[in-house]
Write a structure and sequence with these properties.
- The chain has 9 helices and 24 strands.
- By secondary structure, it is of the alpha/beta class.
- It folds into 2 domains: 108 residues, Golgi alpha-mannosidase II (Immunoglobulin-like, Sandwich), CATH 2.60.40; 356 residues, Alpha-Beta Barrel (TIM Barrel), CATH 3.20.20.
- Helix 6 packs parallel to helix 7 and helix 7 runs parallel beside helix 8.
- The chain is globular.
- It starts with a strand and ends with a strand.
Length: 480
């Protein structure tokens, strides 16, 4: 029997930005081609979008979607994939294999976002692309004047601008095996500045995301040079089993927390307001505090074969990891954007099965958070309880986060990451409503016929709430 944990409500920590529930689609294996977009599917509409996938995505309700990569941005030329379909240019997909199908390009992506009520977030090619090409992309998307690229968009049938606000200045540029030379941070800084200049001169209202990572010295060099020019610092995190058994990914999550907290500490050293910005830039500097865009995150058990372990079947252990990671995201207010990687088929909550799309396990905790955890973020305090995670070492059993809903009540999600023991919590007196997600075992997974996730609704006594082993519990209607 484990000890009871008292959870106390402490101070507020700002508002949870909806953009932490973002998604990501890339030209990678079957994420876009055969996932989002598949004109040959019986579920496709007249635009080639799979409506069954769209419906599942609509329920996940992403407020922001990132595109076209990811690593594919190293070779992505946006002009290949706009205008009449028969004029588009198909290239070999050098990064992920196969071909890079240009049928789903900028306009199709923006339209997909709008159908879901999401903001588009575009990542520009800093490797084989140029600042001019990136600036032209901004103009094609956002131009309202009589310029060539604004007119080009109109000639493609889009009178109104796409108003793309979020622009990523490269992707994982520090990764030496990737194409390009930007793993040398001084070259990233030199080139990122040129890209931002052209892009912000084209549309000064855009917000830019600078490449950051788990190396503090990279982040410091980038921000020392570019903090007035960037609105967000991008961080990516994938946890993996790493030959450490069932709890391996939970050990991996410690690296996520460390990376975010080191970046937060660094961000705090830069001013919120930029003074004396050279007016000759002719666009404004960053306004307000630098923020973190965790614009790729998930669990990824990498395999060195042709699909790199990307076509992952997620089990219930992975869903508990996702619930835990979302709690980490919500407890770090500096993270204002987060994009689960990726939406369909590849490391994905949605599988586009030929007989109809279905959710993998990881979608269920995501939905619980997305539907309930919006509002004023509330700090919680509790004495951590630990359990033996085998080869992954000693781990904390619980992850908790809370928001105050519009009606003044408190909503809390508590994740029990211990698959062997129930844990008991107390959060005051009275009764509350609870929704509990469990599965029969950590290895359970969903397929096109069966959903392995059990959902129970019940009333709980707040002074003794029992969290089943490996469970996620939403506790709502709390008046504390
Ligand atoms: O999401 C898959 C890949 O992971 C992305 O292309 C890349 O940015 C990251 O390394």
């Amino acid at each position: 029997m484990t000890m009871k944990t008292n959870i106390r409500v402490s101070d507020g920590m700002g508002t949870v930005k909806e953009t932490v529930y973002g998604q990501f689609i890339e030209h990678i294996l079957t994420c876009i081609e055969g996932g989002v977009y598949d004109p040959h599917s019986s579920f496709a509409d007249e635009t080639g979008i799979r409506t069954d996938v769209l419906d599942k995505a609509r329920e996940l309700n992403p407020p922001i979607i990132r595109f076209p990569g990811g690593t594919i941005m190293c070779q992505y030329h946006w002009e290949d994939a706009v205008g009449p379909q028969d004029k588009r240019i198909k290239r070999k997909n050098l990064i992920w294999g196969g071909e890079l199908n240009p049928s789903f390009g900028t306009a199709e992506f923006v339209s997909f976002c709008r159908r879901l009520g999401a903001e588009p977030m575009i990542c520009v090619n800093m490797v084989s692309g140029t600042p001019e090409e990136a600036g032209n992309w901004v103009e094609y998307c956002n131009g309202t004047g009589d310029s060539y690229y604004a007119q080009l968009r109109r000639s493609h049938g889009y009178e109104e601008p796409f108003n793309v606000k979020y622009w990523c200045i490269g992707n994982e540029s520090y990764a030496e095996p990737d194409l390009g030379v930007h793993h040398d941070v001084s070259l990233y800084i030199r080139d990122a500045l040129e890209f931002i200049k052209v892009m912000k001169l084209t549309d000064s209202s855009i917000e830019t995301v600078l490449v950051g990572c788990d190396k503090p010295e990279w982040n410091k060099a980038v921000l020392d040079a570019l903090h007035p020019f960037g609105d967000y610092l991008s961080l990516h995190h994938y946890s993996a089993e790493n030959q450490k058994g069932l709890y391996g990914p939970f050990e991996g999550e410690k690296a996520l927390i460390q990376m975010v907290e080191e970046a937060e500490a660094l961000i705090d050293t830069y001013p919120d307001t930029i003074e004396n910005f050279n007016p000759w830039y002719r666009f404004p500097p960053r306004k307000g505090k630098l923020k973190i865009a965790l614009d790729e995150w998930n669990i990824w058990n990498f395999v060195a074969d042709k699909t790199y372990g990307l076509l992952s079947t997620y089990n219930w252990r992975d869903a508990i990891w996702v619930a835990s990671a979302l709690s980490v995201i919500l407890n770090h207010p500096s993270i204002e954007i987060a994009n689960m990687a990726q939406l369909v088929n590849v490391l994905a909550p949605i599988i586009a099965h030929p007989e109809g799309a279905y959710y993998q396990t990881i979608a269920y905790p995501f939905l619980l958070y997305r539907k309930n955890m919006i509002g004023e973020r509330v700090n919680l305090e509790w004495q951590p309880v630990y359990f033996d995670g085998g080869e992954a070492g000693t781990l904390e059993a619980l992850r908790c986060c809370a928001v105050r809903a519009e009606d003044g009540s408190l909503r809390m999600i508590v994740v029990n990451r211990d698959f062997s023991n129930a844990h008991t919590i107390s959060i005051g007196t009275g009764k509350a409503s609870a929704t509990v997600l469990t599965a029969d075992s950590p290895e359970a997974f969903c397929d096109e016929k069966t959903c392995c996730v059990h959902k129970e609704e019940k009333t709980v006594a707040c002074d003794e709430i029992i969290l089943p082993p490996g469970s996620v519990m939403l506790i709502s209607d709390l008046h504390i």
